[in-house]
Amino acid sequence: MLTIAHKAYLIFSVNGSLYGVEAESVVEIFSFPELTFLPEAPPEIIGVVNLRGDILPVMDLNLRFGYNQLEYCLTDSVIVVEWQKLRVGMIVNQVNEVYNLSPEDMTKELFYDREVPDRSRSFVCDMAKVAADIVMLLNIENLLSYSKSVEPLDGDKNKYNLALETVKYTKERIFCPQATPEERAIFRERSQNLMRSSEKEDLTGLIPLAVIGLSGEYFGLDLKLIREFTDIRKVTPVPCCPPHIIGNMNLRGEIVTLVDVRRLLNMPILGAETTAKVMVVCVDDLVAGIKVDEVFDVMYLHPAQISPVPAAVHSINDEYLQGTAPYGGKMMSLLDLQKMFNKGDMIVNEEI
Q: What does DSSP assign to residue 134?
């Protein structure tokens, strides 16, 4: 059962390092678009974008942390975070996964026993162990509100000041001058797509989803029901169970039933079983692990984009589908986890 001690964090990479922010502070994620430079903005704010009528400042985390500015790529993303009604986009190299972390996964012992500046204003509030990786958890309040006398993470203040002065005096008026004309056209198209919206469009009530892959198909699941993504560990088979029950897994002392929902959906099991990922979900008081092929994305879906399940999908057991929605130029099916838990016999009461 998910306890108050757990918090969901969105994990992402910047310049080869892993960082995390509380998932509840994340408003939206989109591909890096063309930006408009803003005169006299703080050096780490490299530009703004028109996000459906709102002007969104976009921050270069490398500059915010005191590192050199890097070249931007089509594969970069922008994570929009909010603190006290202030919204800022952060450029990241890759959005990874959502993890639920407990206090046991974290440590506040970030520095050696020496005099350091006021760490209450540090950008990094905790370090966490996520699988085999170390993730720096960011303090959104400090990241968005504190800008005076910034202390760089590597402690080299001269290097930090030089980086800011370089950006200040050499900032190009052309967005991404190193990009090819084709790449620049894609950046511009992304910016135009973000700007376009109907004035009457209701942007409230967006549905947070995790997008996963099962047997080559896209599925969306309510992000609020997902506790974490983790690796599949030793699984103990349980006899006399339905075929969709793989077995039980010991997850940090908690017994979690591992389920293959493809069998509940009457989907084919394609190829060799090579996946090693499990999505731990929590519905009411029940916890289960769902075996997944891939974890693609975290996104926010407008309810108006949801369509009824078309006849072409009826080859899948649509009893557990809430509808379909577009994703990546293809169709994504929305899973009804509540119904799966209520009718699908998802839990096995067996000790390992």
A: E
DSSP bridge pairs for 328: none
Indicate the helix (H) or strand (E) that contains 27. strand 26-31
β-strands 45-51, 54-60 pairing = antiparallel
- What was the pLDDT predicted at 270? 61
Specify whether the CB–CB gap between 46 and 59 falls below 8 A: yes
Q: Do the Cβ atoms of 299 and 327 come closer than 8 Å?
A: yes
* Confidence check: pLDDT of 116 > 50: no
Residue 52 carries which DSSP code? T
52, 198 contact by CB (below 8 A): no
The whole-model pTM stands at 0.54
| Nearest by Cα to 246 from 286, 212, 292 | 292
Neighbours of 81 (CB within 10 A): 22
Tell me which residue of 76, 68, 73, 21 sits closest to 43, measured CA to CA: 68
The confidence score (pLDDT) of residue 109 equals 56
CA-based end-to-end distance of the chain: 17
Q: Which residue has the tokens 């000041």?
A: 161
Pairing of strands 86-92, 77-83: antiparallel
Write down the pLDDT at residue 268. 75
CA–CA separation, 322 vs 80, rounded Å?
27
pLDDT confidence band for 92 (50 / 70 / 90): very high
Mean pLDDT (whole number) for 26-32: 88
d(CA 246, CA 238): 8
